Amino acid sequence: MLLNLWQQSEPLLSIMHFLMQGGWVLWLIVLVAFLVITLAAERIWFLLITYRHQYDQHVAHWRLRSDTGSWCAHRIREAILSNTNRELSTTLPIIKVLIMICPMLGLLGTVTGMISVFEVMAFNGTGNARLMAAGISKATIPTMAGMFVAIMGLLLSVQLERMVTNRHEKLATALSI
User: Fold this and answer.
1) DSSP class of residue 175?
2) Contact yes or no for 105/25 (Cβ under 8 A)
3) Cα dist. 131→21, 119, 121, 122 in Å?
């Protein structure tokens, strides 16, 4: 029944056809995109939900201190800010690396697709445009997908960095000396 539903769904068939045209590299790009989205969603959840509790705890503990101006208090504040900044930006480097990989995967798709075109030309000559079109699709679709994922991931990464910076600065302000 589920397979029958899958076969009758026009959008799903279109997506599957698109993924098949792009070859195995396109599947790899989809996997990287899924990882970026998952890691970004985790960071957004942490920044919007989980971090609020930690922020409140740090501020409450700081305000309970009788001494906020001594050398020791400065070091404690720096430690709190440093640890918090590390927690805030935990997965951002991984997201950035995955984003940087996407254009390279698109280039890999271009190369593998062009190899397919050259194989068709070697076996069948240059007269059969239909056979060459499959290789050209395999060359251009991963390139487009890799660039799309990289651009969208870059925008997402910049937004996440902005959120991290804002929260870090807000905590630094709240832990005033």
Assistant:
1) T
2) yes
3) 13, 10, 9, 12
In angstroms, the CA 47 to CA 89 distance is 10
Count of CB atoms within 10 A of residue 17's CB? 10
How many domains is the chain partitioned into structurally? 1
Q: Please, are residues 134 and 174 in contact by the beta-carbon 8 Å criterion?
A: no
CA distance 77 to 143: 47
What is d(CA 36, CA 19) in angstroms, rounded to the nearest whole number? 19
What's the pLDDT tens digit per position in 58-114? Answer: 999 999 888 888 899 899 999 999 999 999 999 999 999 999 999 999 999 888 888
Going by C-alpha positions, the residue among 3, 18, 8 that lies closest to residue 141 is: 18
- Whole-angstrom Cα distance, residue 137 to residue 127? 18
Instruction: Kindly calculate the radius of gyration of the chain based on its CA atoms and give it in whole angstroms.
Output: 25
Residue in the structure block whose two tokens are 């239909």: 130
Domain encompassing residue 125: 2-174
**Amino acid identity, position 12:** L
Question: Residue 11 in contact with residue 3, Cβ under 8 Å?
Answer: no
Which residue, chain included where needed, has tokens 């937004």? 159
Q: Which residue has the tokens 């720096």?
A: 78
pTM of the model: 0.82
* Coil vs helix vs strand at 14: helix
pLDDT in tens, 118-158: 877 777 776 667 777 777 877 888 999 999 999 999 999 99
